[in-house]
Amino acid sequence: MAAELFFQTIAELGALLDSRKLSSAELTRAVIARTKAVDGRVHAFNSFDEAGALASAAASDARRAAGQARGPLDGIPVGLKDVIAAAGQPLTASSKILANYVSPYDATVTARLKGAGAVVWGRLNCDEFAMGSSTENSAFGPASNPWDLARVPGGSSGGSAAAVAGGELIAALGSDTGGSIRQPAALCGVVGLKPTYGLVSRYGLVAFASSLDQIGPLARTVEDAALVLGAIAGHDPLDSTSFQADIPDYHAGLKQKKGPWRIGIPKEYFGTGLDPAVGAAVEAAIAFYRSQGCEIKEVSLPHTQYCLDTYYIIATAEASSNLARFDGIRYGHRASGAKDVVDLYFQSRAEGFGPEVKRRIILGTYVLSSGYYDAYYLRAQKVRTLIRQDFLSAYREVDALLTPTSPTPAFKLGEKFDPLALYLCDIYTIGVNLAGLPALSLPCGFTPAGLPIGLQLIGQPFRESELLAMAHTYEQAHDWHRRHPAL
Amino acid sequence: MNYEAVIGLEVHVQVRTNSKIFTRVAAGYGHAENTLTDPVILALPGALPVMNKAALDAIIKAGLLLGCEIAPVCKWDRKHYFYPDSPKNYQISQYDQPMCRGGAVEIELPGPARNVMGEHKKIPLTRIHLEEDVGKLNHGAAESLVDYNRAGTPLMEIVSEPAMHTAEEAFAFLTSLRATMVYGGISDCDMEKGQLRCDANISVRPTGQTTLGTKVELKNLNSISFVRDGIAHEIKRQIALLERGGTVEQETRDYDGQTGLSQSLRSKEMAHDYRYFPDPDLMPVKVDEAWKARLRAECPELPFEKQRRFAASHQLPYTLTSVLVWDKALADYFEEAASLAGPGRAQAVGNWIVNDLLRELGGAKLEVGQAKVRPAHVAALVQLVEAGTVLANAAKEIFIEMFATGETPEAIAGRRGLNAAPADAGELELWCRDAIAANAKALAEFKAGKDSAINAFKGPVMKAAKGKADPKLVDSTLRRLLAAS
Amino acid sequence: MSSARDLDIDHVAKLARLALTPEEKAKFSQQLGEVLSHIEQLGKVDVSGIEPTAHAFPVVNVWADDVARPGLPVEAALQNAPAQRHHMIAVPKVVE
Ligand SMILES: [Mg+2]
Ligand SMILES: [Zn+2]
Fold first, then answer.
1. B297 assigned to some structural domain
2. Facing residues of B5 across strands?
């Protein structure tokens, strides 16, 4: 029996739309109704534009009727993490400092999704300025995990993952600075892809750490992730760090690229702190690939233990600089009654930013300050070189790496207070950002308590096609992605 | 005790481009408030910078013109400080890898007299880097209003070594630097539009001392004459302070060109810590030989080089070269006219340009490029005078008319009957005899050996000839008659 | 490598233009102290002769031609302004 409309995939819905068994308007109404029914509990959305969505859907139906459908995303409702700009829509970064801000322009990815005909409508909850691993740092309240509302959906793209998992959207975009797409995808049982740094334009993405940030899709299946990536990838003259590369047909690549692959298992990623259920699910995935004729090889990424520190220096330093613009002058929250402009800065920022953002601004400011730059930032950049070299050396022996995405399944809301403990959620994901590599998380099982487990595949620069094909091979042989939470 | 001042200048020159340095919204002056902005200029969430190729070309060209070493690779850094005119609260600049290092600005100090060349010196430069300008604050009684139109305009920061010792040197430095920028097409350097801004670091020390005194930074020297006056004033202030037994405090002072006074900027601002780090949004710039060669080919000859060439190849006096070379359009005009006029006529051409053309342009408030009289006209006029076809006084009239109408000198001379009459030697001799007979005093003086007394006869002769007499012929006729009388 | 004890939270908060409550100062000092102690292990890595990575991929000369394009209309530029007057952003008087 087919799942409810709102649990179907882009590929399935595309067939219905093309055969006129379904209109985009009907699909969009179904998704809106679902959101209204469940989002009071999930809180995946910060806001949505119902009228705008229905107008886009009607336009899509008109195109299809005229034989001018624009491709697989035409008429599909998708959402944006609330750090991605869309003209005329709020852009809050889940922060009080941008609570009333409306973007006057589209991010490049937004323009591309609109160009592909997608119904871009929901703005998805996240950790404030994408800083966090649980979506508990949202100024507008935490999002919940659809599999267990008492648990976090992960973060920072927790709203995006929860919305896709809970049937509130067909697909969504998130951003990933240290695991913020992959970790919530793992915790919510969906597919999340962090592309190679430079593959997807960052223009219009509220910057957290510019040298690490990357936008990517969260979707129900690897195939859907490939379809969304195809729509958003490619060079953008508005982003100087956007790479000039030919974009292959990722969807076609799913079937063209065939293994067996040489898969590396980084030994440093299987140490203490790994939840046994997660460990067992990942071992089973390794066994699957071996059964497919893949060569499984243990590899070493010797600088793994330094990833977290390197990441926190670079990410907070860049964030302290990127967030300087939120000052209450040109836009955003302005404190009332400031006695002069200097006071205005102090008070507006104090009132506008939440504690995690303040903590990271302080750390980032400190590591860049006079006398500390060489010891912290410059040294971290050098260690970053070593971390990247670790990955590139491993790729001389293997095609991809396989690891858990998160050491644990979703934890309880409010369970982790200590920043250091929370930072440890990212240990398997941040090396990928430091090295600028593509990586994907896909569902690989459930814990005895019924919580999703994610498998991470890490690919080589700009070889998303292989990565997706490898993930697709696994997904074809398993049905984790067909399970949906009861909400 | 005698004191010596040590002066270093930090000059910001706005690069002339169509669009801003890190985004493609138009750069411009005099537009309605906040109409030259976009997401990048306003530092809206999500906006990203993209370099302007033309700004890079401009600084490389400036570096080549000033003899700087061009960095093979340079990068962009963020310089952090909070200020309402700075939208990101950091400025994108170049910190430890500037585009240009070294080089020098050649200056000329005032000579002993206006018509005598002064001493030339080379003032070494420390560095030149590119950065973005900030917006403009308008201060009201209770609030300040910010216009971001200027924000993001490309700026070159040119830093000299502390190698100047007088306000005159600083003035000459800026004059020469400005001419270089204008010549290179890099900037219009209009100080009224803020296209050239200067801060000066000034210290004094007892003559002979080798260590530097405490420096004071003088800000807002927003016209070239304010630079001279402000620096002179600051040197005097520091010397007076030392002579009274006081000490110079390291500080920043604001010079007010209207009152001629400076004032300490004792801001409550916390100590600066700019937290420079490489901008992750921008890629480094790599400059190869081919790029430099392409720009070197566009580099014009600079004024002092031109001056030396004009003196050497055309034997032009300083009085002409010192006027001709500072305006590139004027110098080009001269060269074209001199080459059309032919060998040996450069000085005559130069005289027409420096005396007559500039006078008429000044009167009409026009630029050289707008003059209807073209180099070919000037060349033709010089040739007509030399051939005796038109006489000097008539030529002056013809020039004024050419300036007004753009007609050729031949056409004007023909239409107005200003061609010199064929020499009627008989009539001329009669006029000369009359003139000598009418002035016994001058005759006696001439006979007594005063040669210049001959001029007293020339006026009446010219008057009788209504200006249409060849001065050479008048002179020789008079001498012949005087010798005989 | 410097010690975590060096973190002068008042000074850093001033640089960052963040007004912190005494509670925040105490809490952040303690938490960041822990993070910084953890970070101290980076001092053990031998980075001699290693080039810093500023960008994930080394590409140079990414620029655009100098062609001006329309920007934001002034209304859009100021649509989010907390205070404006005469088409300009209004701020409390800046004393220079
Ligand atoms: Mg400076
Ligand atoms: Zn500067």
1. no
2. B204
Q: What is the mean pLDDT of residues B377-392?
A: 89
Closest CA to B71 of B278, B277, B284: B284
Q: Is the pLDDT of residue A264 over 80?
A: yes
For chain A, the three-class secondary structure string (H helix, E strand, C coil) is: CCCCHHHCCHHHHHHHHHCCCCCHHHHHHHHHHHHHHHHHHHCCEEEECHHHHHHHHHHHHHHHHCCCCCCCCCCCEEEEECCECCCCCECCCCCHHHCCCECCCCCHHHHHHHHCCCEEEEEECCCHHHCCCCCCCCCCCCCCECCECCECCCCCCHHHHHHHHCCCCCEEEEEECCCCCHHHHHHHCCEEEECCCCCECCCCECCCCCCCCEEEEEECCHHHHHHHHHHHECCCCCCCCCCCCCCCCHHHHHHHCCCCCEEEEEHHHHCCCCCHHHHHHHHHHHHHHHHCCCEEEEECCCCHHHHHHHHHHHHHHHHHHHHHHCCCCCCCCCCCCCCCHHHHHHHHHHHHCCHHHHHHHHHHHHHHCCCCCHHHHHHHHHHHHHHHHHHHHHCCCCCEEEEECCCCCCCECCCCCCHHHHHHHHCCCHHHHHHCCCEEEEEEEECCCCCEEEEEEECCCCCHHHHHHHHHHHHHCCCHHHCCCCC
Domain boundary at B416, B451, B468, which?
Answer: B416
Q: Strands B251-256 and B216-221, how do they pair?
A: parallel
Residue C63 inside a domain? The answer is no
Kindly state whether residues B8 and B102 are assigned to the same domain: yes
In the residue annotation, A156 being an active-site residue is answered as yes
At residue B271, the pLDDT reads 60
Give the CATH number for residue C14.
1.10.20
Residue C51 in contact with partner chain B when CB distance is under 8 A: no
Q: Which of A101, A243, A349 sits opposite C57 (nearest CB)?
A: A243
B155 inside domain: yes
Q: Are B18 and B101 contained in the same domain? A: yes
**B166: helix, coil or strand?**
coil
Average pLDDT estimate for C73-86: 98
Centre of ligand 1 to C-alpha B100, Å, is: 15
Q: What tokens were used for C76? A: 């859009």
Range of the domain at A240: 2-264+397-482
- Residues of B within 8 A of C68 (CB-CB) are 18-19, 24-27
Specify if A386 maps to a domain: no
Q: What's the average model confidence in pLDDT over A82-95?
A: 98
Q: Give the tens place of pLDDT for each residue, B228-267.
A: 999 999 999 999 999 999 999 999 998 888 888 888 886 5
Please state, as a whole number, how many other Cβ atoms lie within 10 Å of the Cβ of residue B142: 8
CB contact under 8 A, A240 and B51: yes
Q: Give residue-wise pLDDT tens across range A150-194.
A: 999 999 999 999 999 999 999 999 999 999 999 999 999 999 999
Euclidean distance between CA atoms A86 and A88, whole angstroms: 6
What CATH number does the domain containing A69 carry? Answer: 3.90.1300.10
- Alpha carbons A271 and A428: distance in angstroms, whole number: 11
B144: nearest CA partner in chain A: A341
- Residue A180 annotated among the catalytic residues of the structure: yes
Q: Provide the number of structural domains found in chain A.
A: 1
Which B residues in the span 72-111 are in contact with C, Cβ-Cβ below 8 Å? 73, 75, 80, 82-84, 89
Show the domain range for B21: 3-292
**Element (H or E) spanning B321, and its range?**
helix B318-324
pLDDT score at B268: 43
CA distances from A349 to A166, A219, A463 (A): 35, 35, 41
Per the structure, the count of domains in chain B is: 3
B282/A240 CB distance under 8 A: yes
Q: In chain B, what residues touch A105 (CB-CB under 8 Å)?
A: 39, 44, 46
C-alpha–C-alpha distance, residues A37 and A31, integer Å: 10
